[in-house]
Amino acid sequence: MLADPTATESVPVSLAQRERLTLWAAGTPSQDQPTFAWEFPAAIDEERVRDAWAEVMTRYATLRSLFAEEGDGVFSCRRGPVTMAADTCVSTPPETFFTQLCAPVDLLGGPVVRLVHSPAGPRTLLGLSIDHLVIDGQSYGRLAADLFALLRGEDPAGPAPATPDAFFREELEAAAGPAGEKALAYWRRTTGGRTYPPLHTSLHRPEGTGVRAETAHCTVVFDPACRHARHPQGRSATVLASVAAATARTLELVPGRDPFTMLLQSSRRSNDEKLNMAGFLSNWQPATFPVAHTAPELVADVTAAAFRALRGHHLHHAEVVRRLEPEWYGARYVPSEPLPPYALFNYLVEQEPPHVDGHSGTPLDVPPMGAYRLHGALRVYGTERADARSAQVRLVADASVFGDGFAGRVAEAVTEAGA
Asked: Of these four, 20, 178, 213, 216, which has the most CB atoms within 10 Å of its CB?
């Protein structure tokens, strides 16, 4: 076990963290807690769960982050001791499982993580809720894998994760200098300075309308003969190109005219040191590429656009919004605030299903929570299968912008093109 830091330590607050904390301090609580739950067909006793969680809290210092307001828009963060594990692990009956799991955390008053355990006779429910302030998708998968390894009595794979503190210091320094101005220039050049750029110039949100989210699913199968299918970036670009081409056909857009503009979610882990960091490093960057009706026409353009977007612009999207369109600062976390019809693409690789004592956990549907409501026009979530032969795609579209049934029609168009 790692040493217990009984004395709390002060660490930097990132640009992304400051956006949420600013909202919270102004009296606008914003729930953004990535939350997952599983059911296991076996009894897992509470002591075992608490011991594994204590190891996780020791291993992942970011989970012990405690935030405070210092006044005048200034916030601080310190890391609490690993004894926080006892207070952040809850055992409760199954009927109150989701009530405990989905309860909002207090960003300026307490821990921002929670593990919930519910014994149910021969079954066990386990849930993990961690506020986005201290975690992103890449970190979450690794943390969950470590938790279940410890529950099996195994050592976690790989080295202990590093904190993102050095990354945040580098980001804050860059934002105050020429690198920050370079990032703003890229946004102005790519989107005209719009921080939530519409997916296409033809799209508009009707005045006074809220968001009506519709969801659909489809699969993109990778052609092993295609060179783009041979590396992760190419497979990600193939998924985005497939959805973009299907969207263009569904909207009956003319190829070669006004381009698509999308926000791409990036882990910002560009080397081994950053790959080993656990925390909230991810960012949104804009990319533009032509309108086309077939994916093969688009893959090269999408790949090039992603490279331009993700090649090291230091400024986090939150800070870009604060500087270029301050009226939207924090808006993406406010459920009642419909934003311009922007589109977001997020791509992750499938994680191994959790298993304990030879039993696999069945994922449970978690009730809707705060920031998981759609704010823009379209979100595309791609999950690459572990065998790298295909990717599952979840489309969430705003019927107020596109009309009823749009997500389903795009999903059908993706499937038809693949067939």
From this structure: 20
Give whichever of 104-113, 275-284, 387-396 has the largest mean pLDDT.
Answer: 387-396
* Distance in Å from the first CA to the final CA of the chain: 52
Give mean pLDDT, residues 79-93.
95
> What are the pLDDT digits (tens) for 338-376?
889 999 999 999 888 899 999 999 999 998 776 556 788
Task: Please spell the DSSP secondary structure of 99-122, one letter per residue.
Answer: HHHTSPP-TTTS--EEEEEEEETT
Residue 154 Cα distances to 56, 124, 147, 189, 412, angstroms:
13, 20, 10, 50, 43
**Dihedral (C-alpha) 281, 286, 288, 289: value to the nearest 10 degrees?**
20
Pairwise CA distance, residues 186 & 179, whole Å: 11
79, two tokens: 């890391």
Tell me the per-residue pLDDT of 118-170, one tens digit each, with 9 for 90 and over.
Answer: 999 899 999 999 999 999 988 999 999 999 999 999 999 888 999 999 999 99
SS3 41: coil
Query: How many CB atoms lie under 10 A from the CB of residue 240?
Result: 28
Phi, psi dihedrals of residue 373, rounded to the nearest 5°: -75, 145
Distances (CA, A) of 296 to 30, 239, 293: 40, 11, 9
CA separation for the pair 292, 259 (Å, rounded):
9
Q: At 375, which amino acid appears? A: H
Which residues does residue 383 pair with via DSSP β-bridges, in sequence order? 348, 392
pLDDT (tens digit, 9 = 90+) per residue, 38-59?
999 999 999 999 999 999 999 9
